[in-house]
Amino acid sequence: MHELPDPGIVPATSTLTWQNRRLHRNGVPHRILSGALHYFRVHPGLWRDRIRRLADLGLNTVDTYVPWNFHQPRESEAPRFDGWHDVERFIRLVGEEGLDVVVRPGPYICAEWSNGGLPSWLTARNVAVRSSDPVFTDAVARWFDQLVPRIAALQSVVGGPVVAVQVENEFGSFGDDREYLRWLRDTLTARGVHELLFTADGPTDLMLDAGTLPDTLTAVTLGSKPDAARRLLAERRPDEPFVVAEFWNGWFDHWGEHHHVRGVESAVRTLRGIVADGGSVSIYMAHGGTNFGLWAGANEQDGRLHPTVTSYDSDAPVAEDGSLTDKFFAMREALGARGPVRSPTRLPVLPPARVPLVPRAGLIPGLRAVPAPTSRAPRPATFEQLGLDAGMVLHTAHPRVPAGEHRLVFTDVRDQAVVLVDGAVIGTVTPQAPSLPVSGTGEVVRLDVLVENLGRVNYGPGLGGHKGLLGPVLVDRRIVHGWDSVPIAVQEWTSTDLAEAVAAGDPTVQTGFAEATVSVEQPADTFLALPGSGRGLLWVNGFLLGRYWEIGPQVTLYCPAPLLRAGTNTVTVLELDHLGDALELRDRPELGPPEEYVEEFT
């Protein structure tokens, strides 16, 4: 167990050092056997349970990212480090369980997390992200002023569990600004980081050329072919140990695709190859957790957005609900673990049940019932102009539509919008289907456009892209002017806000707000499904659990026991397409039809 640190005394050397391609911990030969576990994807009431499961896996280290936007969603507010944001408490818990900690503070983290962890208030500006642009580095410096001393006070050299800190994250697959990387390394050390610093990039010359630094350990990220990566690093860094900062033993899912899995035999074979001959590894993910709320990111490919699902199970050895999988026991054996498995294979779950889903308020009345400022301008305001990170924006205009059949054209919608004319839904528009027919009588109509952000891009050149109606709306060729734009900040709604939305009335059986009542004798995990419903958001006792969508692959939403209470619990649904008549509690997750994911592993 690690004692509380004394930051007043800093030894001259770091806990982890290397020599002759071998890693040492305080001078003793050592391998990092780590697993990725993100505090921001696990309910704080379950942090210790999940840490113990990683220890049972045979690991000696836990690594975690730190998402800037999670801690500081608004520039005007100081970063939060309390409650779910208490990264220091999480690190201390890992130390109390006898494990080391690797911290990956970014500022960019990818992680399939919204905007790669960068705050949207920063990427809203004219800024070259992840570069030596002063607009970017000045903001990072202010953030690191708050974050890094907290990490430094928990370093192993002063008695804490932190043994290594990552510089940036896979920068070699993004850019080639070496000045920025050097600045970032110096920024960490200037704020008190004395432990091992390392970079992490894909094992190709292109990525390593841009992502590495002299006198800083080079680690790699991979899903397969560790022998080839080992040879490449030996050629480039002949004295350094072989460290895999991310071993992708599973993969994440996008809406509309299959549930990605990786076979046990394939994963274990690669793991054995990594740890052979003294290699160090971090299993990504060892426990994936959940993209609660609207924190799931997205990828852009071939001009299309691919939003990530709410679950971040990632086919990890410790499943989303903490269950110990076949992969867990096979990896444990490969890692040479000898101690007992202290954790139960599965935590208790509620019995299956089906309860009515009762409509409470119409879509537009419910959304308008929550107070929010209105922006008025000739064109619709974007999310960034409204200071909105996630959620929706409700735009209203009053165009005159000539008699006859016409088309409403949305020249650049990011990402999806429900369109209503005189209160009736006429359809949904996307970048791939950007127009709808509309019938006119020559009179003025009320045009409501509810634009939904499906997830900010977390990887690649699309990082930092804006959301909303980014181009004009047309009636045929004519631009519609005069818009009221209202931010719908559902991720920030309080229980009072949600209650006001539900109480707005005017319910329909198609879209809007609905509720279900769940009676519980003793809180336990459960898995929520909405058969017959289309697409929307789900809250449990006022907590935004996440997004559901009938296109799958994910069917059930994991609801951890700490979100429930003995007695009556309220589940609230905001349906944007078509509402079913029931909520189901299931005793097993259903993440969709599995598909062996091989692209990144072969």
From TrEMBL:
Domain Beta-galactosidase 1-like first all-beta: 380-488
Keyword Hydrolase among record annotations: yes
EC number(s) on file: 3.2.1.23
Keyword Transmembrane on entry: no
Domain Glycoside hydrolase 35 catalytic residue range list: 23-335
Catalytic activity: Hydrolysis of terminal non-reducing beta-D-galactose residues in beta-D-galactosides
Keyword annotations from UniProtKB, A to Z: Glycosidase, Hydrolase
Gene3D superfamilies per record: Galactose-binding domain-like, Glycosidases
Record domain Beta-galactosidase galactose-binding: where: 513-569
InterPro entries associated with the record: B-gal_1-like, BetaGal1-like_ABD1, BetaGal_gal-bd, Galactose-bd-like_sf, GH, Gly_Hdrlase_35_cat, Glyco_hydro_35_CS, Glycoside_Hdrlase_35
PANTHER family: BETA-GALACTOSIDASE RELATED
Family of the protein in this entry: Belongs to the glycosyl hydrolase 35 family.
Protein's name according to its UniProt entry: Beta-galactosidase
Organism this protein belongs to: Actinophytocola gossypii
Classification of source organism: Bacteria, Bacillati, Actinomycetota, Actinomycetes, Pseudonocardiales
